């Protein structure tokens, strides 16, 4: 007779219990409550070398106190961590690599730290697994990048560890779900501990430890654009977007990227859009952070719903008073959720419109520039056709018809297509051309040893290129040469634009592949700032009936 | 002024303008420019440019060739004071200035 050991199926739960037992012995830890001064010791007790750790760095909200604490642990005890986080925005997010606490990184966006990230990579201080779009990274939290320990941020906790995130829920539910249900450990920093929460965003039995942060969590107002800085050229491009694309396709549901170009569109809806009789016909449903620039359109009755990735500082009271438009909790404040909003933007929106730093002659675009490793956040997900979409809408069907006209077989099978619009002035600041023969991304890929160039939006997903010179409808291009000339034909006086084949560009214009402002019945001289429904921050406050309270740095009146 | 570049272009041909009062549009501000149109005795269109952006002669030439294709005006002197405006803004100002030719106030936004 032989004996055999029964297989064990609960290694992870056993390991979790051991970590919790170590943590219970730390001075200043009582149940779930952790004293501010005990937090570094807590992390040293919980985290083991080689652990995969999610440090909540969202697009806006940052677990900054826990980030500082993690950068203070002893590298002798805690090292070789594999950091998984959507955004690297604070210096501490990279300090952990510089100090030898962490060595591997999987992320989505590192805008503010992009130059230092490239430096550290060059010095061999870290290895990058991959740069993801948000939804892709969240997906991997549930597949092969599940965190062992997550360090998150919330507005408030109660004694049971229930969390209230307030308007900036953002990534928290996705992180906590992946960690708590795979025997991981969740540590939350909160601004305050209260007897009764306004609402519960994260149930307490998914949270292991709570520490009160000495300062409120850092939140960045990323989506505020002062209308005073919108140029006439941006007004012209916004007129073209509204008349030449939104009206043309009857776009009902959409997402706008960040920037003055799209802020101009938002501010033209109640003026120019109204004049064109488009109210109710376009722009009714949005996947969008609460852009202050959308206030005049909301007040004019254009907007039926807005679901948000995160919140925006200063918009709290306005949102609270407009629950028919925004998603709000029983407490009245916004409930944002980046994972759901990214899913909504991908599958439930007819159109994405955004901007880029560079576009090549195949329509590939990238914000990656030499010496910076920045990632793209949500743009690759928003700016991609949703191949799994099956519900029809007029805009989706029309785009699909245009793309498939004349094709046969599998490629000619009727289906819809998402409208993906790149809105770029032909020259950026300092006369940098936005249209280039070769993206910097190729050289960056070589320098950083990436398997592919970091392209934000692939050319075969882009349906329209909009510049001050015109709109190129790439859906109507039938081969690579037409596509290239359609792009050159709106690339203005950039070197790439001046290299156009004038005869072919004229032919494309006759076919409606390229449409100039005049072809759309738009006189560029009508594109004045007088068309903006708000011309400065004060106008936005006034439009909100005083409910919008811009952060101090935007109070310029 | 230090760091300014001066450029001159003569654009031949075009339809002679009737006498007109000088037209001034735009402002000398960062990313913007001032365009002054005045009558001249020359046969074609003469353009004098002071610009803060150095090394963009080829772009100016392309912008002005395009302008001359659009309007083909003769007996015209154009003076431009540029503070780094993009070609899009330059073209817009030129069109605004031409639209204001002969208008009673000579003003454009």
Sum this structure up briefly:
The complex is a heterodimer of chains A (557) and B (109). Chain A has 557 residues and is of the alpha/beta class. In chain A, 31% of the residues lie in helices and 16% in strands.
Molecular structure report:
The complex is a heterodimer of chains A (about 550) and B (about 110). The N and C termini of chain A lie far apart (about 90 Å). With about 550 residues, chain A is of the alpha/beta class. The mean pLDDT of chain A is about 95. Helices cover about 30% and strands about 15% of the residues of chain A. The radius of gyration of chain A is 25 Å and the shape is globular. In chain A, strands 1, 2, 3, 5, 6, 7, 8, 9, 10 and 11 form a ten-stranded mixed beta sheet that branches. In chain A, helix 1 runs antiparallel to helix 2 and helix 8 crosses helix 9. Chain B is an alpha/beta fold and about 110 residues long. Chain B has two helices and seven strands; from the N terminus they run βββββαββα. Chain B has a five-stranded mixed beta sheet, with helices on one face. Chain B has a two-stranded parallel ribbon with strand order 2-6. In chain B, helix 1 runs parallel beside helix 2. Chain B is globular, with a radius of gyration of 13 Å. The C terminus of chain B is likely disordered. At the A-B interface, helix 8 of A face helix 1 and helix 2 of B.
For the CA atoms, what is the radius of gyration of chain A? 25 Å
How many strands of chain B?
Answer: 7
The residue-averaged pLDDT of chain B reads: 89
Main β-sheet description of chain A:
10 strands, mixed
| Assembly state (oligomeric) | heterodimer
The coarse overall form of chain A would be globular
In which range does the helix fraction of chain B lie?
25-40%
Distance between the termini of chain B: 27 Å
Give the CA-CA distance, first to last residue of chain A: 89 Å
> What do the pLDDT scores of chain A average to?
96
User: Beta-sheet strand percentage of chain B?
Assistant: 25-35%
Uncertain segments of chain A: none
The helix/strand series of chain B, from N terminus to C terminus, equals EEEEEHEEH
User: What percent of residues of chain A adopt helix (DSSP H or I)?
Assistant: 25-40%
